[in-house]
Inverse folding.
């Protein structure tokens, strides 16, 4: 696991510059692991706001601006899959006003950005449970998914009202129902078959996980899918996360040797 230092609010001569030229990242070089799927735990909105004496809602609003930056950068850098952890199924314990603010931001993001996302070839997918979500929000999500279903520039997956343990439990229940109903033999339940029952069916597993704000845990995110991902932890809060941080995390990923339990590096391209 690696850690990328955050870009400071003011110049700090003792802190390394995380800016990397795109041509130095060598995406397709034969001796570098290719990265096609990046998953991000977007953490630190509330602390970003608190450090500035602002309400938490402002931190979440600035977090949406970071989403826009990173989606644009991912397209430009040739990343084909981006998965963002937006709202955890455990976040329902937060104050009701904050939950309402988060849901409102998702509504505004879809209404404001959907046309541009579609124009830029972004395919939207939302994973997680629909339980507890308002009907108008579900309609917005469904409309966005339908409109962008044939796009190919970037597969943007938003984990909303999502928890990995819940996802695995739901998959296990569906498998049990199919076995009991006779449409699936127990002996046919392989890792690949199990994966086809997950919310992320037909998506490649993430190559790289990035978590912002300096926290060093998965927080019930993609527990099945991250089995062989490389982890990079960034001190910057999500509202401060920039293309520079993204490029630095990719560069760190490319310094790794991915052996998948073997003795030599193996490509996932």
């Amino acid at each position: 696991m690696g850690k990328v230092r955050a870009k400071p609010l003011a110049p700090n001569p003792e802190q390394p510059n995380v800016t990397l030229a795109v041509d130095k990242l060598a995406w397709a070089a034969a001796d570098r692991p290719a990265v096609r799927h990046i998953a991000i735990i977007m953490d630190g909105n509330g602390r970003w706001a608190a450090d500035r004496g602002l309400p938490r809602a402002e931190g979440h609003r600035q977090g949406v601006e970071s989403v826009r930056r990173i989606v644009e950068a991912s397209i430009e850098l040739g990343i084909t899959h981006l998965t963002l952890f937006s709202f955890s199924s455990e976040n329902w314990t937060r104050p009701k006003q904050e939950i309402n603010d988060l849901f409102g931001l998702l509504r505004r993001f879809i209404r404001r950005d959907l046309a541009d996302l579609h124009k830029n070839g972004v395919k939207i997918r939302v994973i997680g449970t629909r339980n507890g979500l308002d009907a108008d929000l579900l309609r917005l999500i469904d409309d966005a998914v339908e409109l962008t279903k044939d796009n190919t520039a970037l597969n943007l997956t938003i984990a909303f009202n999502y928890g990995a343990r819940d996802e695995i439990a739901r998959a296990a229940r569906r498998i049990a129902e199919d076995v009991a109903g006779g449409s699936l033999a127990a002996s046919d339940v392989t890792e690949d078959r199990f994966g086809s029952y997950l919310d992320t069916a037909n998506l490649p597993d993430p190559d790289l996980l990035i978590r912002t704000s300096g926290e060093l845990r998965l927080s019930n995110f993609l527990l099945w899918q991250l089995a062989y991902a490389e982890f990079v932890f960034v001190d910057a809060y999500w509202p401060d996360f920039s293309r520079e941080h993204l490029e630095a995390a990719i560069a760190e990923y490319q310094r790794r040797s991915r052996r998948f339990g073997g003795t030599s590096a193996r490509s996932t391209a």
The radius of gyration is 19 Å.
